[in-house]
Amino acid sequence: MKLYSTNNKNNISTFKEAVLKGIADDGGLFMPVELPKLPPSFFHDISKLTFKEISFIVANNLLKDDLPVEVISKIIDSTITFDAPLVKLNEQISTLELFHGPTLAFKDFGARFMSAVMSYLTKDEDKEIIILVATSGDTGSAVANGFLNVKGIKVVLLYPSGRVSKIQEQQLTTLDQNITALEVDGTFDDCQRLVKQAFADASLKKHAILSSANSINIARLIPQSFYYFNAYGRTENKKLPFYVSVPSGNFGDLTGGLFAYKMGLPVSKFIAAVNANDVFPKYLETSVYEAKSSVRTLSNAMDVGNPSNFARIIDLYNQSYQEIKNEIYSASFSDIDTIGAIKEVFSKYNYIIDPHGAVGYLALKKFLAEKNQKECNGVLLETAHPSKFADIVEKVLNKKIEIPDALQTCLVKRKKSIKISKEYEYLKNFVLSI
Ligand SMILES: *Cc1c(COP(=O)(O)O)cnc(C)c1O
Predict the structure, then answer these.
(1) Domains in the chain, ordered, with CATH?
(2) Does ligand 1 come within 6 angstroms of the Cβ of 269?
(3) CA nearest 380: which of 354, 361, 356, 359?
């Protein structure tokens, strides 16, 4: 796979360069020059294939020129260690549960795949690799879990003290091994600024190979296409229209779906479900893209006012507003709508949905109602386990929800973090000391 930069199509990089750099030298995002179509036989047989087999075929389709086939197979073996089952709510609507990984959110797919790829690509480096991640909660724990115990790689997480939830903090601070959590006396923006400063610091670059593992890395997007194929594979009647609703913030998950579509997955419509952060539906309505400051909502992992993957989506459609409008539907919902949806899904289907999935449910329902669509395979991506948002869900449903073992174990572990001030010197000295 060759990749260009969204800032300059002539700026071509290899897969290795793109993964290790994260972002192109000109500040653009890496995009595949080509997304090869999968053969008809693959789609014909897809019902008989396991999720792991599907993932291998898709990964190999993209990376066969970059990695030996046995390495791709190993990477898939270590990434796809849990299922992404399709659970039927009614005749038209199913949820694709993406929360069966170690941190109970879909970001586990991207983080695990990226860590396996990075550790292979850097296996001959003699310098240590240090991954620096600023996190406001979920990304950090997925990335850290992905790199847990990976030889030659250390992960330094920076999170804003007192500004992440109790569950999130436990997930960030109880891993130990090659993971260190720095509790910054400041905001998430301070954490991001510190990480940026570290990347620009030549003395740190002499000490180690610094890498970021943020959501724009191409190695996080690739595995986010696998489960769209799995969803299609698990549908019963493949002749029906196939709609996928994606709860979206930075639009990385949706971009993974668009990659799948370009590889031939017959999606009839993508539905970008957003909360009050409505830059994307506004864009579809007016053709004007206007970034905003983010506002806080109950589906907080989607509180993004300037989605970083927008540049990729525009590129996938050759900058054509009309084409994007034809293929992607979008709708925005308030917190009150979200609460209503959590209640409705529980009372109608006896299914506990999290606030992000609830927004996906609402957008799918709205789309089907507008289309007056009766028979179809409508799938919403359930991006997190409801227990991650127990404080909200339990209050809305007025009942206790079960906490899965993975989370239970980390909740009782002792928190271990290093408090640092938001002055850069502290971070610098820490990185030089490891
Ligand atoms: C990150 C996240 C999202 C949004 O995904 P994007 O790729 O940023 O659009 C949705 N739901 C949950 C639970 C998340 O953690």
Answers:
(1) 77-105+221-397 (3.40.50.1100)
(2) no
(3) 361
pLDDT at residue 88, rounded to an integer = 98
Mean pLDDT value across residues 213-225: 90
Dump pLDDT digits (tens) for 247-301: 999 999 999 999 999 999 999 999 999 999 999 999 999 999 999 988 889 998 8
Q: Count of alpha carbons within 13 Å of 137, Cβ hemisphere only?
A: 18
Report the candidate in 62, 50, 19, 10 with the shortest Cα–Cα distance to residue 256.
62
Q: Is 253 in the pocket of ligand 1 (CB under 6 A)?
A: yes
Look up residue 326 and give its two tokens. 């034809």
Q: What is the mean predicted confidence (pLDDT) over 199-210? A: 88
Whole-number CA gyration radius for the chain: 21
Among protein residues, the one whose CA lies closest to atom 11 of ligand 1: 383
Do 234 and 262 meet the contact criterion of CB atoms below 8 Å apart?
no
362, 341 contact by CB (below 8 A): yes
In the predicted structure, residue 110 carries a pLDDT above the cut 90 = yes
* Ligand 1 atom with least separation from CA of 356: 11
d(C-alpha 63, C-alpha 61), whole Å: 6
Q: Could you list the active site residues? A: 107
Listing DSSP states for 142-173 in one string gives: HHHHHHTT-TTEEEEEEEETT-S-HHHHHHHH
Span 366-391, average pLDDT:
94
CB atoms near residue 158 (< 10 Å): 28
- Cα–Cα distance for residue pair 89/92, rounded to 1 Å: 8
> Cβ(101) to ligand 1 under 6 A?
no
Pocket-testing residue among 253, 313, 332, ligand 1, by greatest number of atoms within 8 A of Cβ: 253
**Environment class of 315 (CB within 10 Å of its CB; exposed 0-12, middle 13-18, buried 19+):** middle
Residue bearing tokens 């900058």: 319
At 283, the amino acid letter reads Y
Q: Three-class SS of residue 16?
A: helix
pTM value surpassing 0.90: yes
Residue 311 has a CB neighbour count (10 Å cut-off) of 18
